Amino acid sequence: MARPSSIEPRAPQGLRPRRLPNRLGVRGWVHAGRYPIERYLFTLHRLSGIGLVLYLPLHVWVTSRRLQGPEVWERTMATLSHPIFVVGELLILAAFVYHALNGLRLILGHLGYTLGKPAEPVYPYPVALRRQRPLTVAMMILAAAFIAVGIWEILVG
Amino acid sequence: MRESKLWALHLFSGAALVVLLGVHMVVQHYPTILSWLGWVEDDVRGFASVAARGASAGWSVIYVLLLGFALYHGLYGLRRILHEIWYSPAATRAVDAAVVVVGLVVFVYGLVAVFQAIPLGGAS
Amino acid sequence: MARVLERRATGERATGAPAGAGGPIEAGAVVTLRVARFDPERDVAMRWQTYQVPYTPGMTVLDALIAVKERQDGSLAFRSSCRMGVCGSCGMLVNGKPRLTCQTQVSELGTHLEVAPLPNHDVIKDLVPDLSGTFERHRKVHPYIIRPAADEAEMRAPTREFAQTPEEMERYLQFAYCLKCSLCVAACPTAATDPLFLGPQALAQAYRYIADSRDAGWEVRADAVDGVHGVFSCHLAGACSEACPKGVDPALGIQLLKRSLLTGPPHAEPAPVIGPRPVVPEDPARPRPKAPPPTV
C-alpha cells in the first residue's frame, strides 16, 4: 500500500532551519500598502532628488559652454529649445519645486517642530504625523501652484 | 565625522538651496513674477545677459554657493539611498569614496567655469 | 466595538475587498482566507492556499486562522499567545497592512482576507516571521535605565525610590507601550532594503530611555544610533506610526531623537533618588497599638 505523501521521508536538514528571505526590497520604497500620503511623498521626494542630482553635473557642463563664446552659447540654447529638452526642463522645474517645498516640511518634521509632544496613547491613538497634515496639504497646494505657473511661463510666456 | 554632523549640514544646505535655487529659478523661469518685482529683462538666457551675470561679483558668489550646496545636498542624499541598497561595509566605503571624488571633480570644474566667466562680461 | 465604529467612521476599507466590505457581516456568512504558505523543508518560495470558514460574530482574523487550523489544516503554522493585544506575537500582513491579528476584527475588513507573514523579516514557516533581528537591534540601543557610576551601590541594593513628576513621565510614557511586535519594521520603507538599519522599534526605544528623567545614558545611546545605518536612515515616511497597534508613534520618537542628537540631551542631570528614607524612631514611652479585640 502506498504511503500518503505527507509522511514521506524528507531530505535531511541542518540544525538551523532554512529561512525564506521576505524583504520587500526597492519595491518596498514604491509599493507601500495602505498608508497615509506622507508615505508616498517620501517615494516622490526620493525620485525627484535622484532626478535633480543626476541633472546637476549636466547643468554645470551646459552652462559652462558660455566660456566658448556667443556663437557656441546661442547654438547650445537653440539645441535646448527642442521639445524634448523643454519637457525635460519642465520635469526638472517640477522636481525642484516639489523637492523644495516638501523638503521644508521635512526639515521642520525631522527636527520635531511640527509633530507636537508625546501624548498618552489612549484610543483613538494620537499619531504625530497627522498633526502636521495641514502643512503637508498647504505645501502640496503651493507646489502645484508654482509648477502650474512655471509650465505656463515656459510654454506660453 | 559623525553622521549627525553630516546630516545637519544636509538639512542646512537644503534650507539654503530653497532660497538660492528659488532665486535662480525665478530669474530663469518666472519672468512674469520678476516683472511684478520690477525687474524686466528681455532675454535672460541670451549671451549678453548670461555674460553680464557671469561677470558680476554677486552672481559669481551665488553660483559658487549654489554649486557647493547643491553638490553636497544631492550627493549626501544619493549616498544615503545607495547605502540602503548596498549595505556591506566594503560597498559603504566604496560609495563614500565615489561620492567624494565625484563631488570634488564637479565642484572644481564648476568653480573654474565661474571664474573663467568673469572676463566675459567685459568682452561683450 | 468602539474600534470597529472608529474604523468605519474614518472610512478604512480593505484593499481588493468587494464593495460593502467593512460593514456588518451576517451570521452564517463564509469568510474566505487566502493564506501564504511556506514549508522550509519543501518549498523554495511562498505559495498561496485558500480556506473558507463560517463567520461568527466578533470573529478576529486570528480566530479565523485558529478555525482553519482546528478543523481543516493542522499543518498551518502561525504564532499567537495572549489573544488580547499584549504579547505582540501574532503580527501578520492582513489585506496589505501589518496588523495584530488578535485585535483585527474580520468585520473591519470584509469576508475576503489575505494573510501573509510580516514583510522585511525572514519567514520561518507559513505565517511565522523571524523576529530575532528586531530583538537584536533593540538590544543595541541599551534599552534600560543607565545611572551614573556614583549610583552603583544604590543600583545593586536599592534602598530608595527615584523622583519623577507626572510631566516627566509623560515625556516617555507613550514610547514605553512598545510590544516588540515588529509591525513598524514591517511597514518601514528603509527596512525594506537595509537589514542593518536599526529600525523604528529600536530607535523609538532609544528615545524612550533618553527622554526618561532618571536616565544618564545619552552618550552611550547617541553612539549606538549615530551611524550610517542609524537614526538618519529614517526619512519620516510615517508608515511605522500608522502600523503601530499600541499608539507608540515611533516616527515621533525618532524625530525627537534626531533633534536630541543635534541639540544635546533633553535633561542635563538624571533625576536624583528621593532623599533619605524617613526613619521613625522607636519611642518606648508610646504604647504599641493593641490588637483589636477578637470578634465572636
UniProtKB/TrEMBL annotation, chain A:
Keyword Transferase: no
Entry keyword set: Heme, Iron, Membrane, Metal-binding, Transmembrane, Transmembrane helix
Subcellular location: Membrane
Pfam family, one: Sdh_cyt
SUPFAM superfamilies in UniProt: Fumarate reductase respiratory complex transmembrane subunits
Transmembrane portions of the chain: 44-62, 82-101, 135-155
Family per similarity comment: Belongs to the cytochrome b560 family.
Protein name: Succinate dehydrogenase, cytochrome b556 subunit
TrEMBL record, chain B:
Membrane-spanning parts: 7-27, 57-76, 97-118
Record localization: Membrane
Organism superkingdom: Bacteria
Lineage, top ranks: Bacteria, Bacillati, Bacillota, Limnochordia, Limnochordales
Keywords: Heme, Iron, Membrane, Metal-binding, Transmembrane, Transmembrane helix
Protein name: Succinate dehydrogenase subunit C
Signal peptide location: none
Protein source organism: Geochorda subterranea
InterPro entries from the UniProt entry: SQR/QFR_C/D, SuccDH_FuR_B_TM-su
From TrEMBL, chain C:
Biased composition (Pro residues): 267-281
Basic and acidic residues biased stretches: 1-11
GO molecular function, one term: succinate dehydrogenase (quinone) activity
Co-factor: note: Binds 1 [3Fe-4S] cluster. Binds 1 [4Fe-4S] cluster.
Keyword Iron attached: yes
A Pfam short name: Fer2_3
Required cofactor(s): [3Fe-4S] cluster; [4Fe-4S] cluster; [2Fe-2S] cluster
Positions of region (Disordered): 1-21, 267-296
Family according to the record: Belongs to the succinate dehydrogenase/fumarate reductase iron-sulfur protein family.
Name of the protein in question: Fumarate reductase iron-sulfur subunit
